[in-house]
Specification:
The complex is a heterodimer of chains A (235) and B (158). Chain A contains six helices and ten strands. Chain A is of the alpha+beta class. Chain A folds into two domains: 32 residues; 189 residues, Glutaredoxin (3-Layer(aba) Sandwich), CATH 3.40.30. The mean pLDDT of chain A is 89. Chain B is an alpha+beta fold and 158 residues long. The chains are: A alpha+beta (235), B alpha+beta (158). At the A-B interface, helix 1 and helix 4 of A face helix 1 and strand 1 of B.
């Protein structure tokens, strides 16, 4: 064998070795998942509504904050899946044990904007908000019914409809399935909890995953987390 | 070293290249493009889908103007899709949510790319915009059992 062709073979083996190493490391990253992230489910909708104090709130106000949404309305009672009480529990849990250095926010959106004026929401919110000092902000939002429909139905894919109340003829109830949605500071939906009985540990766990990702969102570590998204390394 | 004909050598190299390319393609398709079973966020309890949640009242619902969600539950007792007749207006966007209450089924909407496996415990989701009037039959594409041929429905766009 001539020296020239032997050199050529060595180069070829080197090329195969490089390809093998690249393929093996990519596959092992995807299989062993050393880094885990919450999925980026979809973009959260943009909106401009009014809170319980009559102040304007838009989706931009929640940029840079981990925001948990729930949906309810002030006439929600009896069979209605009012999850607002659980938001209060989440707030206590987050203030007690969620990672520091990150801003958190809670948002309750009314599904009955026709009746739920900011004043009505204020009365509804008072017992939940309490009088103590809280580090986690909590807004109760209402707005134009069509805009609410676009935000909740179109943006968060939660269907709700007015149905005749069984108690009286001129009254109505809003029918919907309970849902909590966790949106990150970039305005991306990261977790959905379609339940009337929220698992606080699960939420805190998910918040921890997001906190780790946020703390590693700069420099070289960022690429490992982007790779985790690419390879769907979900917990 | 054994002499290998030039042409044969070329074929050997092409074969090796094909293997390498396919290995990379499968890796990318499976992990990067996510061509795999639904993610954990789409897990659902098959024992309760028929009694609680949106699958207990399957059908078409308007989320916002022109934007619909369609929940379909596939069942083997009796063999059918719930619902099996759906009407949507022209130019509406429909997000399909399909799950099974029992065994593995399939869902294929004729003349569209809406085609997926329906597994118990998992939710199959796809969004499609209907820009042409007509009847779109949907059928079960997995051989799911003796009543397999009865599993069909029709979506009408008008």
């Amino acid at each position: 064998m001539s020296e020239k062709s032997s050199k050529k073979f060595k180069l070829l083996y080197l090329l195969y070795a490089v390809i093998a190493i690249v393929v093996t490391s990519v596959v092992s990253f995807a299989v062993f998942q050393p880094v885990k992230v919450l999925p980026r489910i979809s973009l959260a909708p943009g909106y401009a509504f009014i809170n319980q104090d009559g102040e304007s709130r838009t989706s931009e106000d929640y940029r840079g904050k981990l925001t948990l949404y729930n949906f309810s309305y002030t006439h929600c009672d009896g069979e209605c899946p009012d999850t607002t009480q659980q938001m209060q529990e989440v707030r206590a849990a987050v203030e007690e044990s969620a990672p520091a250095g990150i801003d958190y926010a809670l948002v309750t959106v009314t599904l009955d904007p026709e009746r739920d004026t900011p004043e009505a929401l204020g009365l509804f919110a008072d017992p939940y908000l309490g009088t103590g000092e809280n580090t986690v902000s909590w807004d109760f939002l209402t707005g134009d019914p069509l805009r609410v429909r676009y935000m909740v139905g179109g943006g968060f894919s939660l269907f709700y409809e007015a149905v005749a109340s069984p108690n009286s003829t001129d009254d109505y109830d809003i029918k919907f399935y309970p849902l909590f949605i966790l949106v990150d500071g970039w305005g991306i939906i990261r977790a959905e909890y379609p339940t009337a009985d929220l698992d606080y540990d699960e939420v805190l766990n998910d918040i921890n995953y997001l906190a780790v990702e946020i703390n590693n969102s700069e420099g070289a570590a960022k690429y490992a987390y982007e790779a985790a998204h690419l390879f769907r390394c979900y917990p | 070293m054994m002499h290998i004909d030039r042409l044969e050598k070329i074929y050997i190299y092409i074969s090796i290249a094909v293997l390498v390319i396919f290995t990379i393609a499968i890796t990318i398709a499976g992990f990067a493009l996510g061509i795999q079973v639904p993610s954990p966020s789409q897990l659902i309890d098959p024992n309760t889908v028929a009694s609680t949640g949106p699958y207990s009242e399957p059908g078409l619902r308007e989320l916002s103007p022109g934007n619909y969600e369609l929940y379909i539950r596939a069942e083997a007792s009796p063999w059918r899709f719930y619902p099996d007749e759906v009407t949507v207006p022209l130019n509406s966007t429909v997000t399909f949510h399909v799950t099974s209450a029992d065994v593995q089924h399939g869902f294929k909407l004729q003349d569209t790319n809406v085609n997926f496996m329906v597994l118990p415990g998992q939710e199959s989701t796809l969004t499609y915009t209907f820009t042409e009037i007509g009847d779109y039959p949907y059928i079960c594409t997995e051989y799911c059992g003796v009543g397999h041929q009865n599993m069909y429905g029709v979506l009408t766009v008008e």
